[in-house]
Amino acid sequence: MNVLVTGAAGFIGYHVSKALLARGDTVVGFDNLNDYYDVSLKQARLDQLRPDGGFSFVKGALEDAAAVQALFSGRPFDRVIHLAAQAGVRYSLTNPGAYVQSNLVGFLNVLEACRHAQTPHLAYASSSSVYGLNAHFPFSVHDVVDHPVSLYAATKKANELMAHTYSHLYGLPTTGLRFFTVYGPWGRPDMALFLFTKAILAGKPIDVFNHGRMRRDFTYIDDIVQGVVRVADRPAQPNPDWDAASPDPGTSPDPYRVYNIGNHTPVELDHFISTIENALGKKAIRNNLPMQPGDVAATCADVDDLRRDVGFAPATPLETGIARFMEWYRSYYNVS
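The chain above was modelled as a monomer; its predicted structure follows.
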């Protein structure tokens, strides 16, 4: 297939592109290479993809409607996997405008381009953050999620609503993918595993929010990739049993779906840190702090729908995933 991957220089976008190329697909990567984090890491990811003759790269911004339209001009995509976005919960507290431009205006431009190109399937990144104040555990795509606690989460929820509108009005098959705390090699430097590893090796303190009592559904990157590719291969279908009198938020009478992709095994932050310490053979200096605005106390993915529809659910143990990350980190940064 000919696949467009937006955010191809990003953590998940790089790995998804690599997996698609490995199975013989042609991949067009699109990314603006912004400086939200180390641009050299993004370039290094692209350098891993460029030698494959099936990969081509276009630099551009989602919020530039003309650039997005030009991307689709003259080359039909069998699939669009939209992973580009302004990420980060805490960054959204101080830079809200970046989220409106990238995650709302940018997503609208992608929807419009897919609509006019009659793209067979748009799969896009949502987030576990959409669950917000929801206390039903584990988090289910059939839960109502109308109480986000960060602007980042609100933009991801808005993406799901926008996608549904296009599925309803134009018959565009769309599938939202709610990712749960993704980690692994080539990961983002602003994420906990990266930050903790760097600080512990340097003998510097780590900030431990909620005094280490937060619980996260850490999901290894290879599991995320397999979920993304399997879902993208299966265009969203209408739910023939959908009932307007008792509406199911995760499905629709239109070609629209939402899935959780998570390890469905929450891990307490204290245990996460201990696993890193064991992998490094070095103790962390902890700076215990209260819960931060925009955070939630715990996440856990109900993946029954994912397992039923695509025959897969993430299952990589935390110890395995962290060991693989450490192997990559030591090699990439030449750390003994």
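The chain has eleven helices and 13 strands.
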